[in-house]
Amino acid sequence: MRYVILRDDDTNALTPVECLDRLYRPFLDRRLPVNLATIPNVRTNTTGTHGLVEGFLFARNGAAPLTVPITHNEKLVRYLRDNSGYHVVQHGYHHSLFEFDSERPDDVCHRLDRGTQLLKDAGFPESQTFVAPYDKLSRISLREVAKRFRVLSTGWFELRRLPVSWWPSYALKKMFRRPHWRFGRTLLLTHPGCLLSYQRSYATMLEEVKKSIGSRQLTVLVTHWWEYFRDKKPDEPFIRILHETAAWLEEQIDVKVVTFDDVASGKVPLNDGRAL
Fold first, then answer.
1. pLDDT one-digit tens code per residue, 67-90
2. Domains of the chain (ranges plus CATH)?
3. Fewest Cβ atoms closer than 10 Å to its Cβ: which of 73, 97, 140, 199?
4. How much is the CA Rg of the chain, to the nearest whole Å?
């Protein structure tokens, strides 16, 4: 059996319900869980590595405050809580550029703990999973995340950023070419890039998804809801590929779509039969 975690990034207080439902209703109807990496207190002037305002600030306007907690969008919170197929996981705090590439323990701890509390205030179960904005974490951030979460989902790990005590486990990961590894009680998951992205070829996107899933036991399949609505217009061909992905996943008898919580609880085995 092969396993897939569908991870959609950047849900926040400015995310329209209609966008999420348009994208993921086919998944919910098929009982395929969707893991939403959710920003607890989005910063409304966030710019990405390209220097432009981030696309996930979809409903931003000139009167928007500097930060907006997820609790301020009652319609969105109610929608997510009413649809049990969504599983909310913690995605940074403000999602400002490289916010967890910090060497200040007090700053890192505040962002982690305050983000957790805001999601709990919205009525979501306490997240066991942390998703790092921009895939950047300092050594201090990695140590503090591992204290609080059972799962860390990111794109890659760099030796120079890892706590020294993690190095032997990382060396084994590299030696055996494992995409996922563990330190202590924390599972460290990587992903094969954002395979569902408007920046990739639409002609080959679904085949690349299939190939990636077929090449590993557990695939974290990453996408971003706002990419399907650039300039606030639905990209119909791109949306169609996402929905074709849902149909394909449902048809595969040897592929199971799971949640981060399933992995944290040991329901997803490794090739040697041990819990991941």
1. 999 999 999 999 999 999 999 999
2. 2-264 (3.20.20.370)
3. 199
4. 18
